[in-house]
Specification:
Blueprint: E1 7-9, E2 12-14, E3 40-41, E4 50-51, H1 77-87, H2 101-109, E5 117-121, H3 131-143, E6 148-152, H4 159-170, E7 174-178, H5 182-186, H6 192-200, H7 210-226, E8 228-231, E9 235-237, E10 247-253, E11 260-270, H8 275-286, H9 298-307, E12 317-319, H10 321-324, H11 342-358, E13 361-363, H12 366-369, H13 379-386, H14 392-396
Parallel strand pairs: 5-6, 5-8, 6-7, 10-12
Antiparallel strand pairs: 1-2, 3-4, 8-11, 9-13, 10-11
């Protein structure tokens, strides 16, 4: 039986277990401590082009609604539970397709011709899926042209969603939006009891939007059921992810020890039925807190990995921050600014070389950067222009909104 460890190999955090037979780890094992512009999409359902406004929204569709799962502000726990009980009949995500249509569509979509199986999640309205999010899918197919992308989304699983994704479909790329069947996904997992309790209306959903926490749950459940790659929609993918197996990346490391201090689940690659995913689901169900941001997300994966670091039979690779989080959320805004001086231009060129060499995908920290313009000539502008197949922004030669 092999145990999970964390080691440093040329500044890369990894496990003591090789992903490939030819890989060997000979370095010292070190255990982690506790501690305004317009773009156009052509539609098959309408002769009128779908327009992206200067705010990055879609014209010609129904008006955008606020997230219906944001609880009322400044209410007691009891009042929030009453509010949630009234919302329950509206929650389509809590309803199951008993004829297994979801499973059939997933298995029918992913086949032997897919070089990678990739999942993303979008629980917001379809018209909110703007150029920033489209670039995540666009860059995936630049890195993996034969890959397959499934976006788990009730709103994009629609005619409107098809219109948004149609440029990729017309380009011959395999992308599908599908409404997730949450009861099916968590059936016979530790999270099934959590969902049953939520559906009964007896559990406090917390004061954070339940959509956020459902996204955390769905990503764990979909990987546990089918395996593959999960990515948030605020990534730009730079490299093919085919060779990664049972891997998750550190968001931060201790500068002195070079050992991780936080793991993030915005990018995960796992085989189905991986025991760590089971433990993630168990932790979600047992210690759910809907009022603490990150508690059921990055803090959850960090807690569990810290606990199981010496448990036998865990085959896991912990990747360094530079692979998926090369810029933290505090500094990320610099990547969006065009250089104004010779020194800044050199920094941009050096940063592009560094990212192209060491980074698989760059997380944009959308909660921090969603209002920033991607300025032409900036690091992000250069990356989006290069890592794309539809290349809407590059072809328009305009600044990408939102």
């Amino acid at each position: 039986m092999a145990a999970i460890f964390f080691i440093i190999y040329e500044n890369i955090l990894t496990s003591n277990l090789s992903i490939y037979p030819e890989d060997t780890a000979t370095n010292k094992i070190r255990v982690a401590p506790t501690t305004e512009s317009e773009g156009r999409f052509r539609s098959t359902f309408s002769s009128k082009p779908l327009l992206l406004t200067k705010k990055g929204k879609v014209e010609g569709v129904d008006s955008e609604n606020l997230d219906p799962l944001i609880p009322p502000f400044n209410v007691t726990r009891e009042e929030r539970i009453v509010w949630f009980q009234k919302k329950l009949p509206e929650l389509e995500l809590f309803k199951s397709n008993l004829n297994s249509q979801f499973n059939d569509r997933v298995l029918g979509f992913f086949n032997s011709n897919c070089t990678v199986w990739c999942f993303m999640i979008w629980l917001s309205p379809a018209q909110s899926f703007g150029p920033r999010e489209f670039s995540a899918a666009d860059s995936l197919f630049k890195a993996s042209p034969k890959g397959c992308l499934m976006i788990l989304s009730p709103s994009l699983d629609s005619r409107q969603g098809y219109r948004i994704l149609k440029p990729l479909i017309d380009g011959g790329f395999k992308v599908l939006a599908l409404t997730p069947d949450l009861p099916f996904l968590v059936k016979n997992t530790p999270a099934e009891s959590w969902l049953d309790e939520m559906k009964s209306g007896s559990k406090d959903p917390g004061n954070i939007s339940l959509s956020y926490n459902l996204s955390n749950l769905i990503r764990l459940a979909i990987l546990y059921k089918y395996g593959g790659i999960y990515l948030d929609v605020d990534f730009i993918i730079l490299k093919d992810l085919t060779r990664l197996r049972n891997a998750i990346a550190a968001q931060s490391i201790d500068k002195r020890t070079r050992i991780w201090t936080r793991i993030n689940g915005a990018a995960m690659i796992f085989n189905n039925d991986h025991p760590l995913l089971h433990d993630f689901l168990e932790e979600f169900a047992k210690n759910f807190d809907g009022s603490k941001w990150g508690h059921n997300g990055p803090y959850l994966v960090s807690r569990v990995i810290e606990r199981v670091k010496t448990v036998p039979a865990y085959n896991l690779t912990i990747l360094p921050p530079k692979t998926f989080y090369p810029m933290d959320w505090i500094k990320i805004a610099r990547l969006f600014k065009k250089p104004e001086t010779e020194t800044e231009s050199k920094w941009v060129e050096d940063k592009l070389v560094e990212l192209n060499r060491s980074t698989y995908a760059i997380h944009l920290w959308n909660h921090r950067t969603k209002e920033l313009m991607i300025e032409e000539g900036s690091v992000m502008g250069r990356l989006i222009s290069s890592y794309c197949v539809i290349c809407q922004w590059r072809n328009n030669q305009q600044t990408l909104p939102r």
